[in-house]
Amino acid sequence: MQTDNIKAFWRYSLYSSKGYKIAQAGAFIAFISFFILYAIPFFDINKPLIALAFISRSLLEATVFILLSHFILRSTFKLFLLQQQFRARHFFICLFMLTLSSLIMTVVSIGINLLPLFQLTDMSSIVYQEVESTQGLHISFNLPTLLLMFFSMYFFMFIVWSSAYGFSAMLKARKHLQQQVQEARIQQLTNQLSPHFLFNAFNSIRALIYEDQDKAAQTVTELSELFRFHLQAHLRPTSSLAEEWQISQKYLEIEKVRLEQRLNIQVHIASDLWQQKLPTLSLLTLLENAIKHGISPSSEAGLITIEASRQDKHWRLELCNSVTTGSQQPGTTTGLKNIKKSLQLMYGEGMNLCYEKQKERFCVWLELPYVQNTDR
């Protein structure tokens, strides 16, 4: 267990996100700014060497501060506070690491005073003197006082860093949890579509058994292929339009066996839309509704058109089925409601689902945000 913790400790130290690196760069700049503002009263425009020494020292101390916060504090917090169930001993471990980092920083800061290059920045002895006066106030700090001053300052700075990092990690964890909940809800809605799909598919095969057993066997084979695609797609809450069309084609092949000349399909999909995402089985659900309530009840030939087009920052998927007088059977809107709920979980207010019944056809269309670079 101890070995695993050590491995995890170093693993967290070696890998970090782009956002974290940017935040650390900001902390580096903030440290330097604080140090320079703190040292401005000691600058002398007639002695540029002092200013250069203070700036060099601020760069050195800022580097040490960032290294300590990254390799000691961040790894400790991720290992004991963010990845495990919180226990009292974890708090004391983190407090110990905060104290250790502050002590190291204090020793480094005092040790820098001993280097010849930085002796001009030594503030253990300070003299306040008026320009035209020979007298002034002399303040001298002994070693214990310096240790206490520097330790308190760095402990406070590490506390600020830790609070900012903890708050950021909490927001990231909450966002990740919300995403998991959304995916789970989308998956739950997708599961509700499966019985509807199975009912229609088995009805198609049932109609063939008494008419053409060879064709029924072939349809069962096609159905098994459809199930394979269905199960693979079912593992994810979202699919690309290309994957949705691949699954839907299998279903249409089965339905064409039952409906024969009554089912005709026209497809017009822009080439740059095949990789756009939508809830899994959405297109199949729309096709099922179109066939069940529009094409199947009619004795005349029917037509289903599928169109996908780009519209500025959105793309539109439209499915229309022909209807004849009395052919559009009333049905539940469960499928459409499930699709709409899934889309709302994915895009919030950035989506739109509408349907319209005209004299000779029934149309449903989805308007979704267009996502660049969806190819993987």
Structural write-up:
The protein is 61% helix and 15% strand. The chain has ten helices and nine strands. The two termini are 38 Å apart. This is Signal transduction histidine kinase internal region domain-containing protein. Keywords: Membrane, Transmembrane, Transmembrane helix. InterPro entries: Bact_2-comp_sensor_kinase (IPR050640), HATPase_C_sf (IPR036890), Sig_transdc_His_kin_internal (IPR010559). One of its GO terms (molecular function) is phosphorelay sensor kinase activity.
Could you write a compact summary of the structure shown?
The chain has helices at residues 2-14, 18-39, 48-82, 88-112, 143-191, 194-209, 213-234, 241-259, 282-295, 334-347, and strands at 125-129, 136-140, 238-240, 263-269, 277-279, 302-311, 314-322, 352-357, 361-369.
Give the strand content. Answer: 15-25%
How many domains? The number is 2
Principal-axes shape call: elongated
Order of helices and strands: HHHHEEHHHEHEEHEEHEE
State the end-to-end distance: 38 Å
For the sheet with most strands, the description reads: 5 strands, mixed
Query: What does the average pLDDT come to?
Result: 79
Query: Structural class of the secondary elements?
Result: alpha+beta
Q: Number of helical runs? A: 10
